[in-house]
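Need UDP-glucose flavonoid 3-O-glucosyltransferase 6-like's 3D structure for a figure. Predict it.
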Amino acid sequence: MFSTTIIDVANEINVPCYLFFASPASFLGFMVHYPRVESVETESEFKIPSFKNPLPKQALPNFVLNWKSEEDAYWWVSYHGGRYKETKGIVVNTLQELEPYALQSLYDDLQLPPIYSIGPILDLVGPVQWDPNPVQYNNIMDWLDLQPLGSVVFLCFGSLGSLEVKQVEQIAIGLERAGVRFLWALRAPPKAQLEGPREYTSYENVLPNGFLKRTVGMGIVCGWVPQAKVLAHKAVGGFVSHCGWNSIL
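Structure prediction for UDP-glucose flavonoid 3-O-glucosyltransferase 6-like:
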């Protein structure tokens, strides 16, 4: 997505250059058709060709909303998105049935090279490549085996996702009031900007007082889990997600 300098290398040695775009086609359209950020302070919504409906201003990324103060980030994305048109074709990890409108808008754009939708590209049968706590994983799967069909809500916000304490508290309150069975993959925010989320040493410090005792038997709060394997379990009937593209697929 951000390695467009390879286009120059490919052209220099006369090799066709294709872009593999791992995100949705709708976001590809956003990358190649940046909204007019100059009017972001006066407009309430923006029309982007790959989105069926106008986007409300609050849905735009921060580097668009704050383009004057985050000029470097805005320029970075704008530059790379503009260079996509120089490739021989764009291969997108999506499928026609999932994004018909976005894909058609890209097909109709005469300024773009050919678009190839080849998704979904997912490794659902390969082994889990990283598991920091195999005992925890086995306990979770054993617990899921005991739950009724489609009764468990799985909450997971991606391998890079974490929540602030106030957000954790509100989700916990909602789960307890709903009275649903749940499996919650909860991770601590990173300590530094370039680090990923961490595993909590104790959930008592972040969850409402007594939450774990009151929900014992009804739910599990855990760290990292293999998302695809959990979602494939017959006991899981709901998914609360950050809506990352791999999670959606």
